[in-house]
Design brief:
It is built from ten helices and no strands. With 237 residues, it is mostly helical. The longest helix has 31 residues. It is globular and about 55 Å long. It is found in: Cell membrane; Membrane. It is a multi-pass membrane protein. Its main location: membrane. InterPro entries: ABC2_TM, ABC2_TM_bact-type, ABC_2_transport, Nod_factor_ABC_transporter.
């Protein structure tokens, strides 16, 4: 039952034009645009700098923005209430959604990495550490998505999720180096989950650092706190 529901969730995402734009098209456009056009000064080769940020952006678009909006409207229209009353059960529904998110993210990582490699990206470092960061980022953003979708009205979730997406795209080190921000703002930005995910993956895949302990800790704190609040405050109807 869980696998069947996960398959339905995946098909719903891939058949939805707006969701597909958010999860695949926008990250690819950001990757190609900022790698090929000298819009900003970045350290090192552009594609090597931009690709980890786009991977983080793809994770955020699926685990946070897409999941928050989709779950918010499912809650509004009573879909969650009805599914939770089926033999699937509410924990099974959440597990199915989690599997769907991870599957879509795996597709995103493959597509983004393929385009980046075709553009001359040369990743180095330990891929297992990068995978750990991506999984922790997924947990952190999923917690934030469920917290937002389970407490706000669907229209408010739609507006807030898109606003947060745009703000974090600009402030999270995805395409603009964090070092370019003034020091007081930088101290705050470095504590954001998107910044920890972007900077951690970038450091690992550039081969410039060992285990990204600080970034892992930041993402772990966000994941634990957001998931704990979501489990406590989420309203199914």
């Amino acid at each position: 039952m869980v696998l069947a529901q996960a398959g339905a969730e995946i098909r719903a995402v891939l058949r939805n034009g707006e969701q597909l734009l958010l999860t695949l098209i926008i990250p690819i456009l950001v990757l190609v645009g900022f790698s090929a056009i000298p819009l900003l000064e970045v350290p090192g080769r552009r594609v090597d700098f931009v690709t980890p940020g786009v991977l983080a952006l793809a994770i955020m678009s699926t685990a946070f923005t897409g999941q928050a909006i989709g779950t918010g409207f499912e809650r509004r229209y009573g879909v969650l209430k009805r599914l939770g009353a089926t033999p699937l059960s509410r924990p099974g529904l959440l597990l199915a959604k989690t599997l769907a998110v991870i599957t879509v993210e795996a597709l995103q990582v493959v597509v983004v990495a393929a385009v980046a490699l075709a553009m001359g990206w040369h990743p180095r470092g330990n891929p297992l550490w990068a995978a750990l960061l991506l999984l922790l980022g997924t947990a952190a953003f999923s917690g934030l998505a469920l917290l937002m979708a389970g407490t706000l009205r669907a229209e408010a979730t739609l507006a807030a999720a898109n606003l947060v997406y745009l703000v974090l795209l600009g402030l999270g080190g995805v395409v603009v180096p964090v070092s370019a921000f003034p020091h007081p703002l930088r101290a705050v930005v470095e504590l954001l989950p998107i910044t920890a995910l972007t900077e951690g993956v970038r450091a690992v895949l550039s081969g410039a650092s060992g285990f990204p302990a600080r970034d892992v800790l930041v993402l772990l704190v966000w994941a634990v706190v957001s998931l704990a609040l979501a489990s406590r405050l989420f309203r199914w109807e």
